[in-house]
Amino acid sequence: MPRFAANLSMLYNEHAFLDRFAASAADGFQAVEFLFPYAFDVRELQHRLRDHGLQQVLFNAPPGDWDAGERGLACLPGREAEFRAGIHQALEYAQALACPRIHVMAGIAPKGSDRAALQATYRANIAWAAEQAQGAGCHVLIEPINTRDMPGYILNRQDAAHALVQDIGLPNLQVQFDLYHCQIMEGDLASKLRQYLPTGRVGHLQIAGVPQRHEPDVGEVNYAYLFEVIDEVSAQCAWDGWVGCEYRPALGAAAGATSAGLAWRP
User: Fold this and answer.
1) Residue 243: closest CA among 12, 13, 25, 29
2) Bridge-partner residues for 108, per DSSP?
3) Are 57 and 101 in contact (CB under 8 A)?
4) How far apart are CA 62 and CA 17, in angstroms?
5) What pLDDT score does 253 carry?
6) In the CATH scheme, what is the homologous superfamily, with its name and number, of domain 3-264?
7) Could you give the CA distance from residue 18 to residue 215 in angstroms, rounded to a whole number?
8) Nearest to 230 by CA among 182, 264, 187, 179
9) Eight-class DSSP state of 262
10) Secondary structure (3-state) at 4
11) Selection from 61, 73, 51, 142 nearest residue 99 by Cα
12) Among 14, 33, 143, 215, which one carries the catalytic annotation?
């Protein structure tokens, strides 16, 4: 069975953020991911991970002004200095938390922008970020995100993400393959797992039920079958990544909501 990491930005919202580490460990998770660590003292995060025997496997680089709707700076011409400062900050946290992966969000295309200029900026920034991370022993991940949840996001398909990773050609640049986003944009999940996992370009998987982003046993996707596919392909190609549980519990933030929804795990 795949190795599952609890996404603490979406799961255990019945608890304050720092208390979610203990809650996830109590439910048997051995690893966690979340969106952003920057509002917290890195020493406090270190303590929570150590005290509960958890491994930090992923978080995001700073996305710009999240509250204003920004979802990454990598594609935005003129924001390179801010982007680079954010990557340096992310790498500092990654090293302190022994986190091997940083997801770098692409960004949303401004109205009336030149698509070619955005793509050129995106490529240059991602290549620079991967080069910086290489020296820190860290992987940079890029993730195709669906246009229903995030209109205007410039990276939406698996083939585009893999083509960019191949084009840049750095071994620590990989794809974050979110099956929820892929089902909405493309479907054919089992075939894509068989296609992409053996390439070595997939650094992390994420799951959620479709269409409402609830538990993986709620909705149209047969995750029990897909977990078997992941196991089968992983055994053949020695893929040993984590599967992030990035979903919203169907019971919301009610007491015990996350734990009550974990019956999908074996």
Assistant:
1) 29
2) 153
3) yes
4) 18
5) 83
6) Divalent-metal-dependent TIM barrel enzymes (3.20.20.150)
7) 22
8) 179
9) G
10) strand
11) 61
12) 143
246 is catalytic: yes
DSSP secondary structure, 151-194, as one string: TTBS---HHHHHHHHHHH--TTEEEEEEHHHHHHHT--HHHHHH
| Whole-Å CA distances, 244 to 78, 84, 169 | 33, 26, 25
CA of residue 160 relative to chain centroid, distance: 17
Given this model, what pLDDT does residue 217 score?
A: 97
The residue whose two tokens read 């709707």 is 69
- What is the predicted pLDDT for the residue at 91? 98
Q: What is the DSSP string of 71-116?
A: --STT-TT-HHHHHHHHHHHHHHHHHHT--EEE----BPPTT--HH
pLDDT for the residue 88: 98
CB-CB contact of 169 with 200 (8 Å): no
Residue 144: predicted pLDDT: 98
Predicted pLDDT of residue 266? 77
Rounded to whole angstroms, the Cα distance separating 164 from 173 reads 9
| pTM of the full structure | 0.97
- Active site includes 82? no
Task: Give dist(CA 30, CA 6) in Å, integer.
Answer: 8
Say which of 14, 33, 215, 246 is annotated catalytic: 246
Q: How many CB atoms lie within 10 A of CB 193?
A: 22
What distances in angstroms separate CA 129 from CA 33, 106, 141, 159, one per listed residue? 20, 12, 10, 21
What is the structure's pLDDT at 89?
A: 98
Instruction: Kindly state the helix (H) or strand (E) to which residue 195 belongs, with its residue range.
Output: helix 189-196
Could you say which residues of the chain have pLDDT below 50? none
- Closest residue by Cα to residue 209 from 251, 246, 177, 252: 246
* Distance, CA of 182 to CA of 207 (rounded, Å): 10
Phi then psi for 178, rounded to 5 degrees?
-95, 115
